[in-house]
Amino acid sequence: MYQSFQEIIEIEKNTGKSFWEIVRDNDCQEMEITAEEAFLRMEKMYDAMRSADASYDPTLSSASGLVGKDGAKVAAARLENTLLCGSFLGLVMEKAIKMGESNACMKRIVAAPTAGSCGVLPAVFLSLEEEKGYPKEQMIKALYVSAGIGGIIAQRASVSGAAGGCQAEIGAASAMAAGGVAFLLGGDGEAIAHAAAMAMKNLLGLACDPVAGLVEVPCVKRNVIGAVNALTSADLANAGIRSRIPPDEVFDAMRNVGRMLPEDLKETGKGGLAATPTGTAFRDNLKTF
């Protein structure tokens, strides 16, 4: 697995290969499979995202009762044209919440990179495919780009809330999605890297503070900000804006911030929103079941 964006950018410049091809070739080498087999594996991953989105059940709530049915509310508001963000961003918001709720309701999802951040990538990619009509093959290539970004984050920092806070889950997912969108917009490795970096910078230091220790509150709704943040970051990169801090240094900073976060803000359910009077009341009431 590549250790840095700079490595991939240099390979891209020297070989003429696209970012996604470089990631795919590395996948083939590690898995000892052909390019066709690797592409099929990624296609199945994308199909699973599609299936999870299509199978959302608006009647379900999680066992705790903390989340459920909100995805349908956003869908209704979008159809009624009452969302200030408009139809497209409304669709992204809707899909992000639906996926997070499906996870909390124990339905099949794709951890991208984690279950708690499972709504970001599908919300962005599926909505873009629907809105812009990108061919499926192009979406799978974008998913390779996102996977490559996730691999770099895992190498340089972490994709675990317990190790790095929610910046390592929603933040990482947002960076992965931002880079994938930059690719879809025609960006090269540099644009992809800077889109990912800007997305992470916006969520740097995000606490992981699940109420009652469940991946529900505030996790589900944070998928929305991760998805929208990915789109705005990709647009900035596509406009030619670059992060003043080099992308690899941004993710090094993420690692260092994660190490500095207190344990109470790293998935323990002891700090942040989990420690509010309402949060602790939910936790105590759940213990009685």
What would you say this structure looks like, in words?
With 289 residues, the chain is mainly alpha-helical. 64% of the residues lie in helices and 0% in strands. It has 13 helices and no strands. The relative contact order is 0.13.
Features:
mainly alpha, globular, 13 helices, 289 residues, single chain
Structure summarized in a few sentences:
The chain is mainly alpha-helical and 289 residues long. It is 64% helix and 0% strand. It has helices at 5-15, 19-31, 35-54, 70-79, 86-104, 120-132, 136-156, 161-164, 170-184, 189-203, 219-238, 247-260, 277-286.
Which outline best applies?
A: globular
The total count of strands amounts to 0
Give the count of helical stretches: 13
What is the percent of helical residues?
A: 55-70%
State the distance separating the first and last CA atoms.
45 Å
Radius of gyration from the CA trace?
18 Å
**Biggest sheet, open or closed, and with what strands and sense?**
none
Question: What percentage of amino acids are in beta strands?
Answer: under 5%
Give me the secondary-structure category. mainly alpha
Low-confidence stretches: none
User: Would you tell me the overall average pLDDT?
Assistant: 97
How would you summarize the topology of this molecule?
Blueprint lengths: L4 H11 L3 H13 L3 H20 L15 H10 L6 H19 L15 H13 L3 H21 L4 H4 L5 H15 L4 H15 L15 H20 L8 H14 L16 H10 L3
Helix pairs in contact: 2-3, 2-7, 3-7, 4-5, 5-6, 5-11, 6-9, 6-11, 7-9, 9-10, 9-11, 10-11, 10-12
